[in-house]
């Protein structure tokens, strides 16, 4: 047993390939046999991934889900920002330039709405729960944009640690809901063409939520959504601690 | 094949670099659009190489491999989220998260409706298949007409 653990730990990334491969295979089987292909295999795989992350978090008390188990640390590398961005860029070779051009202006509108709408919701909910100062409202509002915008904003305007933690949790929860919920509402919101995928990417933000959700809906839409989503976090980090904070402070004072 | 992977890597690195620079320029502590810039670079590079007739099987396989690994990578990403914290966050997290989500979903639906009907992915592929067919067998199509 010790020997097995030693080999798996020493080859962390290879272990991750094997584990994720098994999860993918299992998900595809479940998709075909249990749902007759109605629920995508990738959607099931992502839900299994999240469930495993929950289990890993309970088991180790850490913050990186399954990747906190030494044997499965390779999952952290495989699903980390470096390889994720590398693979997303690779999907650009599937982008149809003509389609992307058509969505240019509407993508920008979606990006702006995608920053302002969640921010308003987050800030209002925060004030409803007693976080009525401008700094806390802005930080939690920024967390509702994405879980990166939240802490960046909180750090910039001097929010307290629990408030920053809340803003991260809000963003992570939103990202998780986007991953799970997108395939369910895809038909309802007309998510079957490149243009709506770009609008979706701009509005939903979080590259992880968007790419996961679109991957589970229709693999071919991923590059279009990622193209706009990638500007979302940057835009949020730009406007949340500056313009949006000033507006909130002007409204609630101090 | 390594040429494709290298091209992908170079585009990614330049994109990240420009994204960092843009962040610095705007006074933001984040990478602004690095991945998006990299994607645009890769699309441009591919078009440029294609016009020179150098876009070969190896190049496309090197990029295609990583594009195909994308979903497994997303699954690995899901498996390392702090799901426990998200669940423990309580009602404020739940309400703010779901509220923001529903509002954004409706906005997507609204914008999609308002901007008129777009060609779906299935329709695009069907049309491209037809066009490819005509390009390969122009004679038979002319006869059929």
UniProtKB/TrEMBL annotation, chain A:
Segments passing through the bilayer: 6-27, 39-58, 70-93, 105-129, 135-159, 171-191, 197-217, 229-252
Keyword Nucleotidyltransferase: no
InterPro entries xref list: Mal/Na_symporter_MadM, Mal/Na_symporter_MadM_N
Source organism: Sphingomonas populi
An MF annotation (GO) of this entry: sodium:malonate symporter activity
Entry protein name: Malonate transporter subunit MadM
Keywords: Membrane, Transmembrane, Transmembrane helix
Residue span, Malonate/sodium symporter MadM subunit N-terminal domain: 5-252
From TrEMBL, chain B:
Record field: transmembrane: 29-49, 61-80, 92-111
Keywords on record: Membrane, Transmembrane, Transmembrane helix
Pfam families attached to this UniProt entry: MadL
Protein name in UniProt: Malonate transporter subunit MadL
InterPro entries in alphabetical order: Maln_transptMadL
Cross-referenced NCBIfam families: malonate_madL
GO cellular component terms given for this protein: membrane
Entry superkingdom: Bacteria
UniProt keyword Cytoplasm, yes or no: no
Species for this entry: Sphingomonas populi
């Amino acid at each position: 047993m010790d020997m097995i653990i030693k080999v798996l730990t020493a080859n962390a990334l290879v272990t991750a390939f094997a584990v994720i491969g098994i999860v993918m295979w299992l998900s595809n089987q479940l998709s075909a046999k249990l749902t007759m292909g109605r629920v995508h295999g990738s959607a099931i795989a992502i839900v299994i991934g999240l469930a495993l992350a929950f289990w890993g978090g309970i088991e180790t008390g850490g913050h990186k889900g399954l990747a906190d188990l030494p044997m499965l640390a390779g999952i952290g590398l495989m699903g980390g920002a470096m390889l994720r961005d590398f693979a997303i860029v690779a999907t650009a070779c599937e982008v149809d330039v003509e389609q992307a051009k058509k969505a240019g202006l509407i993508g920008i509108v979606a990006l702006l709405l995608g920053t302002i709408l969640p921010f308003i919701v987050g800030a209002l909910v925060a004030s409803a729960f007693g976080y009525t100062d401008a700094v806390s409202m802005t930080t939690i509002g920024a967390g509702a944009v994405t879980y990166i915008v939240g802490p960046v904003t909180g750090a910039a305007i001097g929010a307290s640690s629990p408030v920053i933690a809340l803003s991260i949790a809000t963003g992570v929860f939103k990202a998780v809901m986007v991953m799970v919920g997108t395939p369910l509402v895809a038909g309802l919101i007309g998510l079957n063409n490149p243009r709506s995928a770009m609008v979706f990417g701009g509005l939903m933000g979080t590259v992880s939520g968007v790419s996961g959700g679109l991957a589970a809906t229709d693999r071919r839409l991923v590059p279009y959504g990622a193209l706009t989503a990638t500007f979302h976090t940057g835009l949020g980090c730009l406007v949340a601690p500056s313009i949006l904070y000033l507006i909130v402070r002007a409204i609630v004072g101090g | 094949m390594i040429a494709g992977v290298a091209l992908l890597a170079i585009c990614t690195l330049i994109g990240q670099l420009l994204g960092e620079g843009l962040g610095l320029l705007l006074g933001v502590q984040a990478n602004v659009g690095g991945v998006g810039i990299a994607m645009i670079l890769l699309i441009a590079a591919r078009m440029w190489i294609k016009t020179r007739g150098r876009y070969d099987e190896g190049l496309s396989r090197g990029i295609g491999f990583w594009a195909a690994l994308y979903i497994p990578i997303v699954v690995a990403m899901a498996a390392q989220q702090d799901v426990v914290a998200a669940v423990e966050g309580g009602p404020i997290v739940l309400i703010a998260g779901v509220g923001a989500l529903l509002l954004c979903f409706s906005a997507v639906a609204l914008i999609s409706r308002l901007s008129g009907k777009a060609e779906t992915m299935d329709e695009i592929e069907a049309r491209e298949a037809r066009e490819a067919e005509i390009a390969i067998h122009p004679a038979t199509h002319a006869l059929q007409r």
